[in-house]
Amino acid sequence: MGELTGVLRALASTDVDTSQEALEDLYGLLLDLGSTATPATVRAVPRIARLCAAGLRTSALLFFLGSVAASDQEKGIPPGAARASVTAQLPLLLPLLAHEEAEVRQLAVWAVAQCRSPENSGQGLLAVLPRFPRRVPEVLAGVAADGDRPSACCHST
């Protein structure tokens, strides 16, 4: 966890190169082979969500969190644990649906949509729509994407 702590600190750096390198390291440490969630992934999600909500590399971290939630490859954790770890952070992520930047809104919609489970088929996500009436079309499009990553972004932004 020591290396991860350093990576999380570096993500908050004002130096663009340091922050970018930390983002690349984050994927290597927490999403094994690019899509496999591990116990370290689940433990780090709350800290990553807090960085995201604080406005630090918000787009890139939303993409990361959405990738964690969408992961169906889990090693050393119970099935669904990766998605549940991101779902638990919805109170931090939902306000980003109303962000002033379109890319952040798009990524927030996609990341939040990945938190739905087969059991609720998006009902939990749809329950928050009244809080963001102007964003309903974007949210519904994110739900309909059914796991497709947003096309207007990449994890290094």
Question: What can be said about the biggest beta sheet?
Answer: 3 strands, mixed
- State the helical fraction: 55-70%
How many helical elements?
9
Radius of gyration: 15 Å
Strand order in the largest sheet: 1-2-3
Question: How does the helix and strand content classify structurally?
Answer: mainly alpha
Strand coverage percent: under 5%
Mean pLDDT: 80
Q: What is the element string, with H for helices and E for strands?
A: HHEEHHEHHHHH
Shape: globular
N→C terminal distance? 25 Å
Per DSSP E runs of 2 or more residues, the count of β-strands stands at 3
Question: Which residues sit in consecutive blocks of at least 5 with pLDDT less than 50?
Answer: 151-157
Please give a quick description of this structure:
It is built from 9 helices and 3 strands; from the N terminus they run ααββααβααααα. It has 157 residues and is mostly helical. The protein is globular, with a radius of gyration of 15 Å.
Task: Please describe the structure with a list of short key phrases separated by commas or semicolons.
157 residues, three-stranded mixed β-sheet, disordered C terminus
